[in-house]
Design a protein that fits this description.
- The chain contains 12 helices and 11 strands.
- The protein is an alpha/beta fold and 368 residues long.
- It has a single domain, classed as Metal-dependent hydrolases (TIM Barrel), CATH 3.20.20.140.
- Strands 1, 2, 4, 5, 6, 8, 9, 10 and 11 form a 9-stranded parallel β-sheet that branches.
- The chain is globular.
């Protein structure tokens, strides 16, 4: 018998840059491996992970223990409201985390490539290189005139979450509550509408993860590009405020967008608990429902590696093939698994960039 077949994977969301910014700003730990976190180059290769969307994220100031979200006696979780961030700090942290990504690329001797198109991701995979695509988890680094957007786009950012779970000048993040719907707070501001349109024109994917429901429907109304939720799950299975309702999934499907399955146990479990003892069957149950609502072109992975507690059956990037095996055991065929695990993120990126190229009259990017 030959070596086992490894399914290729492109992941829609991780917080590796935050971890490196906090612990190793040279980025060497990503290349050389280490015991901390979920993803480094060695574990990625063992798990078949070919690349992903690497988020910049500006953390809140530490909260007192009594302010941290914890379940009450009835199992409910009511996180306190989070304050808006100042743009100057947000920009400083965002640029510092992007700098870490570029240091990783430079130090990798070609083993890691920062990619800007689906074709570049495919080319990196052909060269046995790991593909990083840059993403903002929350747009606080962008000012009201959107000047920073052009600079960030030139630096390689190709996906932006309008908000994290706190307010910005663009809209309102949905707070972490269980059980709760995402219908909390007002919609996009005028600046938020302008940011969506500017992202459409540049071919930058608009990520609605962490956005509240009114803001979501404003994006649906305004955007002429596919809508993505890089790391969200099915609200009908796990009724946490961060998950997507069936109506939201219908709208993402109609936009030819994609939703990435979030591995965080808090967003997977019916009881909303954080427990590594969460079976892979819970994940395939979400995938089944997402496929029913979104279709085979609309479902992908959005692990939230390095940003969440994930099932022990996966553990870290090296365990990704365990999820693939669970999908196969649940009856998913090889082609469907490859779509979900790899092709759908490349395809939605190519669709987004084609729409932008047509609308601006620029040369159309190559597709994957």
């Amino acid at each position: 018998m030959g070596p086992p077949v490894t399914q290729r994977i492109f992941d829609g969301h991780n917080d590796v840059l935050l971890r490196l910014w906090q612990r190793d700003r040279t980025g060497r730990r990503f290349l050389e491996g280490g015991d901390d976190g979920h993803v480094d180059l060695l574990r990625a290769r063992r798990g078949g992970l070919k690349g992903g969307l690497f988020a910049t994220f500006v953390p809140d100031a530490p909260r007192a223990p009594q302010e941290r979200r914890a379940p009450g006696a009835d199992g409910r979780i009511e996180a306190p409201p989070l304050a808006a961030l100042g743009r100057e700090r947000a920009l400083d942290v965002t640029l510092a985390q992007l700098a870490v990504a570029f240091r990783v690329e430079r130090a990798s001797d070609g083993a890691v490539k920062i990619c800007r198109t689906a074709d570049e991701i495919a080319a990196a995979a052909a060269d046995e290189a790991f593909a990083m695509m840059l993403h903002l988890e929350g747009a606080e680094a962008i000012g009201p005139d959107l000047d920073e957007l052009d600079v960030l786009h030139a630096a390689g950012v190709r996906s932006i979450g309008l908000v994290w779970s706190r307010p910005t000048i663009f809209g309102h993040g949905v707070p972490f509550r269980f059980p709760a719907t995402p219908d909390i707070g007002d919609g996009l501001t005028e600046r938020g509408v302008a940011l969506v349109k500017a992202c459409n024109a540049l071919g930058v994917m608009v990520d609605v993860s962490h956005l509240n429901e009114k803001g979501f429907w404003d994006v649906v109304r305004v955007s002429d590009a596919p809508i993505v939720a890089t790391h969200s799950n099915a609200h009908v299975i796990c009724p946490v405020s961060r998950n997507l309702t069936d109506a939201q999934m219908d709208a993402i499907r109609d936009s030819e967008g994609v939703v990435g399955l979030n591995f965080a146990t808090f967003f997977l479990r019916e009881d909303g608990q954080r427990s590594v003892e969460t079976p892979l069957s819970t994940m395939t149950r979400h995938l089944d429902h997402m496929l029913e609502k979104l279709g085979p072109r609309g479902v992908a992975f959005g692990s939230d590696f390095d940003g969440a507690l994930i099932p022990a059956a996966i553990g870290d990037a090296s365990g990704l093939q365990n999820l693939v095996a669970a999908m196969a055991a649940a009856g998913y065929g090889d082609d469907l698994i490859d779509q979900i695990a790899y092709r759908n993120w490349l395809d939605v990126l190519a669709r987004t960039q084609r729409i932008a190229a047509r609308s601006t009259g620029t040369a159309e990017p190559l597709t994957s």
